[in-house]
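Please produce the structure of this protein holding adenosine-5'-triphosphate.
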Amino acid sequence: MALTSISLPSLQKLASGKVRDLFALDDADKLLFVASDRLSAFDVVMKNGIPNKGAILTLASAHWFRVLAERIPGLKTHFIGLDAPAGLTADEARAIRHRSMQVRKLNVIKIEAIVRGYLTGSAWNEYQAKGTVHGLAMPPGMRLSERFPEPIYTPSTKADQGEHDENIHPDDAWREIGDRETARRVQELSLQIYKTAAAYAEERGIIIADTKFEFARDDEGAIYLVDEVLTPDSSRFWPKDGYEVGRDQDSFDKQIVRNWLIKEGLKRREGVEMPRDICEATERRYKEVFVKLTGQDFDEVVKE
Ligand code: ATP
Ligand code: MG
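Below is the modeled complex.
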């Protein structure tokens, strides 16, 4: 069964996003970050969820936080640990098993820090129309799914609830963020993390076509990597095996749901219920990419 709403009466709920719910902990510097099984596509949350999705996203993010911290000296992340906090009832602890993490509570920087290694999605649409990606000139004659000469930082605004994110030129990101030095650092970190992760994933047969990071600051202004990282919700993952320029790739993410919504004419419609076969296929895809990236079988991990 998919869990679409998280109720923890023992803790105070601070916020509820499209996928995650945030709860206060006794230590005011920390949060309990809980991923539900909700799925959002085209910025709209589906009525039903994908079984195990919250746990897959949480465990995949935890894996990446460890991998990245090991490979990028000095990288700060919000990740504290996967232990459940003290003081929950047995039912509450069971409900959030494998889907919660304790994180540092920080001030989120209002930018979606997107990095693209390959030409696809909205970038492909813009490129076909204007030869640019987020206003950046790109080499002529590029084809769908082609690798960029270098990964590019293509931020978008972090829209308030109900609004859609807007693609912006990297040089304009500081206007959203407030200062140029933070904007520069976010761009530099985004590219560094993408390159590190892309090399790691490629060794495991996965191409990270693009991904989105979020960053935050503590009260002293230090910058942290936060939110979920390099999950199938925040990234386009392609199998390296079978990758071919000039066509769409068979991606390990919620593309199955997006394609179904488009086919049914349900794109951006509220309250859509996904049929069982679409949910099952999506769950399988999420599990497939989990084992490839972490080397661990999801069902084995959660059995313990
Ligand atoms: P949003 O549009 O706000 O990103 P979302 O629907 O993507 O919403 P979720 O992923 O469901 O949001 O919820 C996670 C929320 O927690 C996001 O708003 C994210 O910015 C915020 N967040 C992530 N890490 C932290 C942190 N360390 N401290 C405070 N807030 C955080
Ligand atoms: Mg999010």
